[in-house]
Amino acid sequence: MAFDQLIAAGTVAKVxxxxxxxxxxxSGYGFRxxxxxxxxxxxxxxxxxxxxxxxxxxAAAMGLPYLPTFTGIGGDIVRGHPRIRPVDDPFGxxxxxxxxxxxxxVAIIHVQRADREGNAHLWGNLGLTVEAAFAARRTxxxxxxxxxxxxxxxxxxxxxIPGFLTTAVVExxxxxxxxxxxGYWRRDFEPFLRYHQISRTPxxxxxxxxxxxxxxxDRQAYxxxxxxxxxxxxxxxxxxxxxxxxxP
Amino acid sequence: xxxxxxxxxxxVVAAGREIRDGEVVFVGMxxxxxxxxxxxxxxxxxxxxxxxxGVIRDRPAEAFIYTMGDPPNIAxxxxxxxxxxxxxxxxxxxVDVGFIGGAEIDPLGNLNxxxxxxxxxxxxxxxxxxxGDIASLAGRTVLIMEHEPRRFRERVDYVTSPGHFPGRxxxxxxxxxxxxxxxxxxxxxxxxxTLHPGVTPEQVRQATGFELSIDEGIPxxxxxxxxxxxxxxxxxxxxxxxxxxxxxx
Lengths: 248, 249
Known about the structure:
The complex is a heterodimer. By secondary structure, chain A is an alpha/beta fold. Chain A has helices spanning 2-8, 29-37, 50-62, 129-135, 149-153, 190-198, 202-214, 219-226, 229-233, and strands at 14-17, 44-47, 66-69, 84-87, 96-100, 106-114, 120-121, 138-146, 159-161, 166-171. Chain A has a 5-stranded mixed sheet. In chain A, strands 3-5-4 form a 3-stranded antiparallel sheet, covered by helices on one side. By secondary structure, chain B is α/β, with parallel strands linked by helices. Chain B has a single domain (7-235), classed as Glutaconate Coenzyme A-transferase (3-Layer(aba) Sandwich). Chain B contains 7 helices and 13 strands. Chains A and B meet through helix 2, helix 3 and helix 4 of A and helix 3, helix 4, strand 9 and helix 5 of B.
């Protein structure tokens, strides 16, 4: 949905992605208008599968020009692709596809907690968060809580981004809403459904953009505009992981 | 007999039956997610589920989820890894079966979820997601489709998730579950296995834009048992995925 909003707002020239839509209903109407009609502007689309996006970021995170894979052989995604080419196995095995690295200028990562140096603890599904943080030239960590460094050092296996990779750290509770953050926020599904409905027309999208972006000066105003939802979505129960003993 | 279940509930049951005990399953959302939970609760208690966001579960989520990243799918998981970790297992050949949905299909089981001009004008679809990877790398794939003539095409405009092709390393489409029946795809053509109760061969032919084979006296898809229905209605209490009109699109 975030892709769709950026595209519909006319801020995107090129999309490199495996999937652009809305988890509530499939199609992203802003993406469709841009791709099909060039409204509000034409976009260049570089189609991927999830794994080729993952490999492109992983290659950059590893400092490699590309990574080989067997995924996508026989399909149209890889045909004439600017970033995917056939490659021979130097050890004589079957041929593969090489996926070239994608090195983002900036990655923005939301985590549960980080210290002031940007050492970040994240738990739950990791998706491509770690690859993105390692691959990017600059990484901004937003977090639910800034915690003392002892909290981070008490559980170093939970640190997925070491602070020296972090360009800036921002304390922004609810920074992932309406998506969930394990242990802090449940997903608010209504905004996904509402956006799916209202973004069917350019006028509808403009109304959404005014209400939820242009008329709100900052994140605090956004949370206030969500109204009661924030209280309903906040996780209050605790299900703590068992302690792990790091005693030397 | 009065139908006491929806077509999508029947599709969930058919999806669940494709999972054998002890298998590693690439799950996905919507009907396959419910099918995985149903299989775990009935005939396949030892199946393990992988989700493309990195979650590995050997029991269904404790509460209803809209997406695989929702908190009930994380709590009680066996492992929460990254996308490349579960995709690596898939590439290694450790996944027995994966589920994929598509907007369009052809007789070789090629799926299109990228773009189509089938209706005359260009329509952009969301893209591959993990579909292309599952199609390429799983031990076998089960495809889930709405059965409509505009979706069943002699040749799809774009092959997002490859079906059968010469030189395929492993796997390929095994079974197709639609709103009208269950079909075998292993032979590189579409062979009806069962038609859903009340569906006629004529109806299926009219809804399919290519030749498919339906034997004389083809059996009906086995109706859900009371236990199976009870499971589905507990997992999807408001009929979000399985109601007559699927609210989830």
